[in-house]
Amino acid sequence: MPRDTFTRRRWLAAVVGGLTAGCGGRADSPSTSAPTETTPSPTRQRVTPTATTPGDSEAMATDEAAPFQTGPADCAFDAGEVLDGAWPMLHYDAAGTHAAPETNGPTSFPLNERWTVSALESRVALPVADTDYVYFLAMDEGDGEAARTTLLCHDPLRNGEIQWRYQADAMPVGPPISAADVVYVPFGDAADVRIVALDRENGEPLNTYPLPGRFQGALSSVGASLVIPTESRYQVVDARTGRSCWSFSPNAVDATDSAGQHIRATAVGDGIAYIGTGFPDGAPTTQVGHLYAVDPSRAGTRWTVTLDSPVNRLAVDDGVLVATTGSGLVGFDAASGSRLWDTAVEAHVRPATLAMADRMAVYGTRRTLHGLDTATGAERWSLPFGVRGDVIFVGDVLYAVGRSDPTSQRILLGAVDVESGQPRWQQEIYDPIVDVMAANGYLYAITTDGRLFAFSSV
């Protein structure tokens, strides 16, 4: 099969081939500073777009002295709800809620396994779905030039039949996303990344975009905008053209205790980008973090807050911003940055378990799953279920992966009633699940052995 050839230090100047048609102990309560209202930051006009057409390897020049910088493109920055049938990113919507409409997945029980796909000897990971297809990456890891990745597109309504595949001689550094009829995939290594844009209907390459800086986290889509995070810069480009709209660099803010921190979590709500930072894990100084509410309409920040712990996860819903830290959860008024509540926990919060919907925030620890009222921070229920991976909302059902008995080796895929916290269904999976998502009426689970399971209601 023809494929694109990438190297870790140099990328081909043009995108070629790569397409083959298929067959169809309790911690102290976290403390925060009072939010600081900020005036719009000075801006610097950039003249070189971030995106490049194939054959153009020139990257955008930036001025690190300005926290907020504008680009030549004008992006609408409004994170709409996840479309019926879609789960466009690996873990979450742009707001970080992990919530999908009820029509996206099964909500009546029991569930049946409808179909399974596997990529033979490859390691399968990073599934996403739009309103029509499911995409995942099959990776053959090797040394240097031997690394190879295939992006597979499947039709869930045809029992997972392959629609097309795209192959590259590079490893992905994050999940693909589907936005505006285009599938974007970041390839390379964390320090040298190109984002490849593919036509979602046939997998044909459309463009490649270079990424200056060390890639951090995952791509996300906000309407027609594409959010590209690096360790030091939050960058937004037009998803249709790849031209830069604006960027924000936390370390360029005039605050001595913020220098050297990395972006660790992001969320978008009502046109505002919420960015959480902290020192890298293992750094000598780790017990400090910052939250920034960045408003592109005013070319600067609305407010900033200093915390006594790095930010691990963010989610915003119904005017409340929730952050998980090393010592618990903190709720903020999303508009003003005022602290509404904080909750200390007796055990470490699993970083990947924050989910929000309908004034409820759910998080997990090694032994327990908790549901909190986002208006007050009061606990509404708890369930003895040690979370091992993501939790997601599908209508009034919460899906989680973990163990009901921490001493057991049995990994369960469970469904919980959102209001009461009572279990509704569970299924033992012999190969540990690494991710779940809901789209196209199915609940999808991907396992460590590289299989993708599709479940639906009986």
From TrEMBL:
PROSITE patterns (UniProt xref): PROKAR_LIPOPROTEIN (PS51257), TAT (PS51318)
- What Gene3D superfamilies does this protein's entry cite? 2.40.10.480, YVTN repeat-like/Quinoprotein amine dehydrogenase
Q: Where is this region: Disordered?
A: 20-61
- A Pfam family per the record: PQQ_2
Q: Where is the composition biased (Polar residues)?
A: 44-55
Q: Where is the composition biased (Low complexity)?
A: 29-43
Q: This chain belongs to which protein, by name?
A: PQQ-binding-like beta-propeller repeat protein
Q: Which domain of life is it from?
A: Archaea
Q: Which SUPFAM superfamilies does this chain map to? A: Quinoprotein alcohol dehydrogenase-like
Q: Which residues form the Pyrrolo-quinoline quinone repeat domain?
A: 235-456
**SMART domains in alphabetical order:** PQQ (SM00564)
